Amino acid sequence: MKKPRICAVITDNDLEAIREVQPLVERFEVRIDLIGDGWQEVARALNKPWIACNRTISEGGNWQQSEARRKEELLKAVQLGADMVDIELSTSNLERVVSLIKKKASCILSFHELEKTPLLKHLKEIVKRQLAAGADICKVVTTAQNFEDNLTVLKLIPEFPGTRLVAFAMGPLGLPSRILCPLVGGDFSYAAIQRGKESAPGQITVAELKKLYEMVTV
User: Fold this and answer.
1) Which of 3, 37, 121, 211 is the one with CA 20 to 30 A from 157?
2) What domains, with CATH codes, occur in the chain?
3) Using the 8-state DSSP alphabet, how is residue 103 labeled?
């Protein structure tokens, strides 16, 4: 079995906590919308690959300034060395933004449903749209209202063999899908650096996720 990969989500500028988890993860996600003005110093301190993300409120983030400024920060991140940028499929002028990102970095095109898990056929259409828009990695995140929602979102991964895909459900009921995503062929899973620093509902810590993976991949 391929070793499951963990992406630690950085939500503040606690460099000591970041250094502690660095040996346990394959990459970081720098949440510009949550860190705020000091995000560039945080990014410069990393010595592993990192994703730049500046999430809109409508998709579960905290960016409160203009859309033009939001994109500007993401393009700054590319210049600063981000090897991936996560941008929402719903972004305006998406084609232009994607082409600018892809000059220097890979592009994750993401979709977030904050209330439910749509039917598998709808999720497949979203992935097709992401691929058509130039996604290097497709990311589909739903919200679990019951256990079956985990299965629905995970079924998306084998539907697109050869495609880099991250798919899971948020919320306490979505925990199985977060854990299983890389075990069923997903690209990686996200984890919080410490308890209390989660970037989304249902996220567990790097240490917890690492322990689980060690148990199932020995």
Assistant:
1) 211
2) 6-109+172-216 (3.20.20.70)
3) T
> What span, in angstroms and rounded, lies between the C-alpha atoms of 149 and 146?
6
Query: Given 3, 104, 128, 139, which residue is catalytic?
Result: 139
Residue 122 known to be catalytic: no
Q: Which of 76, 112, 155, 197 is catalytic?
A: 112
Residues of the chain with pLDDT under 50: none
Distance between CA atoms of 57 and 165, rounded to whole angstroms?
A: 23
What size, in residues, is the chain? 218
Percentage of the chain beyond pLDDT 90 is 91
Average pLDDT score over the chain: 95
Active site residue 155: no
- Residue 51 near residue 80, CB atoms below 8 Å: no
